[in-house]
Input
Amino acid sequence: MDVTQTNLAEIRNAIASGQMRSADVTRAYLDRIERYNGTINAYTQVFSERAMQRAQAVDAGEVTGPLAGVPVAVKDNIATTFGCTTCGSKMLENFRSPYDATVVRQLEESGAVILGKLNLDEFAMGSTGERSTFGPTRNPWNTDHAPGGSSGGAGAAVAADLAAAALASDTGGSIRMPAAWCGVVGLKPTYGLVSRFGLVAYASSLDQIGPITRTVEDAAILLQTIAGHDENDSTSAIESVSGPIPDYVAALNESVAGKKLGIAKQYRSEGNHPAVTAALDRAASLLADRGAEVVEVDLPHTEYGVPTYYLVATAEASSNLARYDGVHYGHRTEDPADLIDLYAASRAEGFGDEVKRRIMLGTFALSSGYYDAYYLRALKVRRLIKQDFDAAFQRCDAILCPTTTGPAVRIGQASDDPLAMYLMDVYTVTCNVAGIPGISIPGGLAETDCGKLPIGLQLLGPYFRESTLFALAGSLEKEMNSTLIRPDEIRI
Ligand code: GLN
Output
């Protein structure tokens, strides 16, 4: 088999059974990265030597574990003691973390080989994957197109077989959106299921780490590796809240018969690409054929999702990003006139336009006189959105909806209109606002002026019910043959 044209589970099994050596698999991925990363720009850094050493240690039996020898990559806002943790920003271009993120430790303890760090919109702020200080990532399906953001590098790397799987972060859609636009699987777990320790904070009440993978099973395997309480993250759920961590892979065999699948009219917008509407109908009828019961649910506050999200996210970002002051972390200006100038110039030089815009929006929303009208109001609407889901999940086990309104935009298409970019998140943000889990799986291909491009289908579930999502998503993946969706060889 071509080792780079497969998935995490197959690679893991082949290495575990001695059919393949991790060093050969890792070398094959590194060769592919060498060949294509110049075009795709999925990686900010590649740890070739370290990865090969780890792979050889696996082959020598010195490193063992359930993911022994499997080459994966992590988004570059997840802290690693090796290499830099740049967040795609000039501010942290040379930042070296003194500790590893919990998820990095978990990956390494399970024997995985980390190939490198993946490009992202600066500080994970963006919907297209174009706003990194290291340049845009390109969509392997068509390199004139954006991969989706903010985890553009992760989506593109998995789709282009530059990693067997990836870990990324999702604050308002950053895992699911690139998964949809790149034709792969992306899961945002329930808030609190996965430790955020070592994830550079964007909006702390929304941020969550999750997998981007080729298959639903791979997502289940990676979630198994990273789920669970971490005493280093005070927002990580304890077992009395989350329940014991289930066997997620076993959940794939759960029957969908008798499961109630919610459909909401709020997701059936005129603005959806016809392929999105068709995929939604097809998915619902395939699951109904397997015995699921389709029920109408109402999510009346969906239209307030984007404004609520962008108020909460920017408010939290303005506070979280205050630490980059030229003294504590990151870029420091040269020859400042005084201390205030040191702060102002370091921040002015270190941050890109979108990050500055968000800091200003968030500072405004929190400022005295406007706090009640904006931030506090957003918190109240957040509660209403959460209540919509609570009520819907009284009637169904999961909600089926699109991930995005259509396929990938062209690079540059959304760059001078921030509002247009924010509106792209209409179907992904409510999941984070409510804290529930959501998975995006390939929904087929949309015919566009520029050829065929993938679209995503999303399943949303109640808190800590990732197993239900895996059961439904796994069944859909099988029925729709979506693991066969792959881009042609990349043009370089
Ligand atoms: N597009 C959203 C934003 O720009 C979501 C980003 C994310 O999930 N990190 O804030």
In short: Residues 372-395 form the longest helix (24 residues). The mean pLDDT is 96.
